[in-house]
């Protein structure tokens, strides 16, 4: 008898009884089940955290094949459905001129962009502790985590206000998306104003930060709508250019650089399996290799005070001519970005015997949560913002900076090989990672520039793990273009 014939054959008495028994058993089991289809997200949320972590890790690995390209070679074979509609230079274009990609369109849409049904726009008032807490929760749960889902960002309210409220910030550029039914915050994007010098051109533009969509909504193609709506709001203020950074290749990087890590607490980093550590070292060798002095050695090195701001501005202005991409800071912006804030940022200056400031260095701190570890619950990374060296050797100043960061409880120090950072990275035992950071301009074309011509003061890409640095600039962050 064939399989097809057996399907048509009526059951025997014994088989019929077995089927009836099976149906009765199934009916009893179904009586305990809720009516209607179960929400798969609710099922996932009901699982223990450790099981959720394993499922999310598997989903990440399963989706790697459709992720955005990480190299220019991969990018050549990729179709950019959204970015091909935007005023950016195309991959492969050889640009020798300077200016807008598209001329300004005087007609700006007055109505907000349409969202999927069930969602609404909301302008977030971060002066409200409750709203600031909502944003912190959204970012900490959804902004980014390691590929193996073991570490997540833990942005404090103080850090978010530092990143989102520099001088001249605008309320309408803090853009949120809420669910109509319960008003839950599920999406966010922000912009802050900045004056930037691109080669010899000075431009007022925006830096875009904290682009984040809730994990459960990323298939709804909400990211392009967020970018379009923010663009509309920025255009309403007469601004038509932006600068941003990403860990993936988009059309088209004006410069690319690598990320470097320097362990400050090797024991902890090895225990949490921090990415980028040298795999050929045991603990004792790692401790010896990464040992630092107990105290700083540069005479006159001290924390910045408010009275130092004008002299720091002068130090920065003298250095700007060395770079093709750099911010143009006001005195108020220097005070905002560099004046030390507890658990947010630190700045140190070197004061000569005659009272003049000769050197300065600044870094900010990014906190993360370590998930499901029997001992460690948190991780602190110090990220280099900027250093100016006139009388002190840059390697000596950075070694003292490592000592200071370690004394403040940081576990790792991160830097990019931009500016003249290559002069100290290898000497001070930084290790290059396999991750890159790419810089982009929106609606502005110019020739490409090497990393040593990029000054990242207040323009370091706010990190998406791996460690794309989490700096105050966070512009169209990597891994969130979907």
From TrEMBL:
<dbReference type="InterPro" id="IPR022677">
    <property type="entry name" value="NMT_C"/>
</dbReference>
<feature type="domain" description="Glycylpeptide N-tetradecanoyltransferase C-terminal">
    <location>
        <begin position="271"/>
        <end position="449"/>
    </location>
</feature>
<dbReference type="InterPro" id="IPR000903">
    <property type="entry name" value="NMT"/>
</dbReference>
<feature type="compositionally biased region" description="Basic and acidic residues">
    <location>
        <begin position="1"/>
        <end position="12"/>
    </location>
</feature>
<feature type="compositionally biased region" description="Basic and acidic residues">
    <location>
        <begin position="28"/>
        <end position="38"/>
    </location>
</feature>
<dbReference type="Pfam" id="PF02799">
    <property type="entry name" value="NMT_C"/>
</dbReference>
<dbReference type="InterPro" id="IPR016181">
    <property type="entry name" value="Acyl_CoA_acyltransferase"/>
</dbReference>
<keyword id="KW-0963">Cytoplasm</keyword>
<dbReference type="Pfam" id="PF01233">
    <property type="entry name" value="NMT"/>
</dbReference>
<dbReference type="InterPro" id="IPR022676">
    <property type="entry name" value="NMT_N"/>
</dbReference>
<keyword id="KW-0597">Phosphoprotein</keyword>
<comment type="function">
    <text>Adds a myristoyl group to the N-terminal glycine residue of certain cellular proteins.</text>
</comment>
<dbReference type="GO" id="GO:0016020">
    <property type="term" value="C:membrane"/>
</dbReference>
<keyword id="KW-0012">Acyltransferase</keyword>
<comment type="similarity">
    <text>Belongs to the NMT family.</text>
</comment>
<dbReference type="GO" id="GO:0004379">
    <property type="term" value="F:glycylpeptide N-tetradecanoyltransferase activity"/>
</dbReference>
<keyword id="KW-0808">Transferase</keyword>
<protein>
    <recommendedName>
        <fullName>Glycylpeptide N-tetradecanoyltransferase</fullName>
        <ecNumber>2.3.1.97</ecNumber>
    </recommendedName>
</protein>
<feature type="region of interest" description="Disordered">
    <location>
        <begin position="1"/>
        <end position="40"/>
    </location>
</feature>
<keyword id="KW-0472">Membrane</keyword>
<feature type="domain" description="Glycylpeptide N-tetradecanoyltransferase N-terminal">
    <location>
        <begin position="105"/>
        <end position="257"/>
    </location>
</feature>
<dbReference type="GO" id="GO:0005829">
    <property type="term" value="C:cytosol"/>
</dbReference>
